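Late entry, coenzyme a persulfide complex.
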Amino acid sequence: MDHETFALLRETVRRFVEQRLIPAEDQVEREDDIPREIVAEMRELGLFGLSIPEAYGGLGLTMAEEAAIIRELTRASVVFRSLIGTTVGIGSQGIVMDGAEAQKAEWLPKLAAGEAISSFALTEPEAGSDAASLRTVAVKDGDTYRITGTKRFITNASRATVFTLMARTEPDVKGSKGISAFIVPADTPGITLGKPDKKMGQRGAVTCDVIFDDCVVPASSIIGGVPGLGFKTAMKVLDRGRIHIAAVALGMSDRLIDMSVRYAMERKQFGQAISGFQLVQAMLADSKTEALATEALLNAVAAKFDAGENVSLEASSLKYFSTEAVGRIADRAVQIHGGAGYMAEYKVERFYRDVRLFRIYEGTSQIQQIIIARELMRAMQ
Ligand code: COS
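Prediction complete; structure with ligand written out below:
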């Protein structure tokens, strides 16, 4: 995108965040849902299509540009990002990266327009960090597959029009090689949804089980048409997704630091604003330093991704660092707010709970450490 158009988009998102999203945060928390008008406005702004190539009606942003927009957006509650997150990221990118032309033509324009919402169905009751052990099976039956299994904690499942679903097409092949990625419309007979999950935070973001019971799809639903490549598709999608999550962590870091500085300058104790105390200043300084480190790493990794290089190690380092950092930043924000930081009306305790998820989804911190160490050792061989 040319510089001027991008600057305009960024400014528009900034205004939208200030004028529409931040004022709606309490309503979303109360109702555990995003108001329809806001969903419509997000659609109009093109937010569902950030990462979809222009040829299919999206904005076709680079990773660096997408990260900058997501950072702006997540100065508001990260719940708003969650609505578009799976369509921009893990739900659609399998099709963008590995989809056949007909699959892209069928799905990407609808996803870009926000007419269809995609959701990523990898995790299962017995397959979380060990994604390659998934048990959902897709049994070949003529020119169809019959899918049976349960997917767990699936973000946006109840809003989804389509799932990117990982299932085992070769039941005898253990591990990653027997897995294929499917495009499954959510209205396919044989799909039911579990009860909405009750979560620690992120009220207004929705997750639930998705149960496939002899759900029949054409064989042509396999992403790219070749069975057995689904695990690699999922891993590539997650490499990219981890950069996106770092941008989310950074946007929320910006917000928490702003809230902390403002509160520290307003709050008076011992006859002066608490921002005058060096122990409070130290917390502010540590938070800003960590946010700047995330920003520098995010810029570097996004640029490397945009240059077409393999970023598995870097994306994991970035996701690991940025999400652990925002956890500490949120914790300091609560501390700076003191008693008020524990009270719901100040929102800091809500954000503290919201960001806890970042260290878990799209690969736990421990999985990121494993990926980093493995890549280091691989490079040494
Ligand atoms: N890009 C492309 N291919 C990749 C890849 C990547 N980032 N990571 C792995 N692969 C390939 C490997 O090259 C290997 O291919 P070959 O068999 O042809 O050599 C195959 O995928 C299997 O990889 P590996 O042996 O590393 O798989 P493991 O089962 O040991 O574990 C981890 C891989 C732990 C990294 C993976 O399971 C993981 O990321 N888990 C976390 C899952 C997750 O993030 N869940 C969140 C739910 S979605 S919100």
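The chain is about 50% helix and 15% strand. Will revisit in the morning.
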